[in-house]
Amino acid sequence: MTARIGVVTFPGTLDDRDSLRAVRIAGAEPVSLWHRDKDLKQVDAVVLAGGFSYGDYLRAGAISRFSPVMETIIEQAKAGLPVLGICNGFQILTESHLLPGAMLRNNHLHFICREQKLRVENAETAWTADYEAGQEIQVPLKNMDGRYVADERTLDELEAEGRVAFRYLDMNPNGSLRDIAGITNAAGNVVGLMPHPEHAVEPLIGTGRTDGLGFFTSILKKLVNAS
């Protein structure tokens, strides 16, 4: 039996169907999860998809962090459950303290939507093993509150421990400190990033590139090899 990967839908989530499709294209079984249900339906990994959950009121991800499903995800992520947070999902992970730092309004105060070049900095996480460190990929980026910030001590720790997973190349689209596009926790099972790999998984739609598919094939291989 193939791995089951759940995708959470909150009120205002936009990219859950894209994430479910990406899971299916990678060869895993996609499972829809509803924010009010604590039951994760025995999934092997979870994706927190992009969007504007709860309208980004208070702060992006601040309300979603208290959804019933997050109680279970936080508990199981600390026990090793692989979790990927994309865009709004990344914001939810920082609000949940599963990842350090915070996301603020873009420094230019505008919504941005573009193809974005990234460099893979850590290819040893559950979600990045199909890439190589130093590899350059290009995936869509679309956000308003995408500026990653943290205190200098936290930033130094992320750098020293190899927990910067992705870095922006050519241009910094939102003012993120140290050009950070994505990070991982110390265990490597929780990864968050602002760009959208689920929009770059098949050549006929989106960017016409498949640079984002590696996120989903990486976790599938890890789960299959662990079974």
From TrEMBL:
InterPro entries: Class_I_gatase-like, PRibForGlyAmidine_synth_PurQ. Its EC number is 6.3.5.3, 3.5.1.2. Pathway: Purine metabolism; IMP biosynthesis via de novo pathway; 5-amino-1-(5-phospho-D-ribosyl)imidazole from N(2)-formyl-N(1)-(5-phospho-D-ribosyl)glycinamide: step 1/2. The keyword Nucleotide-binding applies. It is found in: Cytoplasm. It comes from the Bacteria. The keyword Ligase applies. It catalyses: L-glutamine + H2O = L-glutamate + NH4(+); N(2)-formyl-N(1)-(5-phospho-beta-D-ribosyl)glycinamide + L-glutamine + ATP + H2O = 2-formamido-N(1)-(5-O-phospho-beta-D-ribosyl)acetamidine + L-glutamate + ADP + phosphate + H(+). The active site is at 87 (nucleophile), 196, 198. Keywords: ATP-binding, Cytoplasm, Glutamine amidotransferase, Hydrolase, Ligase, Nucleotide-binding, Purine biosynthesis. Part of the phosphoribosylformylglycinamidine synthase complex involved in the purines biosynthetic pathway. Catalyzes the ATP-dependent conversion of formylglycinamide ribonucleotide (FGAR) and glutamine to yield formylglycinamidine ribonucleotide (FGAM) and glutamate. The FGAM synthase complex is composed of three subunits. PurQ produces an ammonia molecule by converting glutamine to glutamate. PurL transfers the ammonia molecule to FGAR to form FGAM in an ATP-dependent manner. Part of the FGAM synthase complex composed of 1 PurL, 1 PurQ and 2 PurS subunits. This is Phosphoribosylformylglycinamidine synthase subunit PurQ. It comes from Streptomyces violascens. The lineage of its organism: Bacteria, Bacillati, Actinomycetota, Actinomycetes, Kitasatosporales. The gene is purQ.
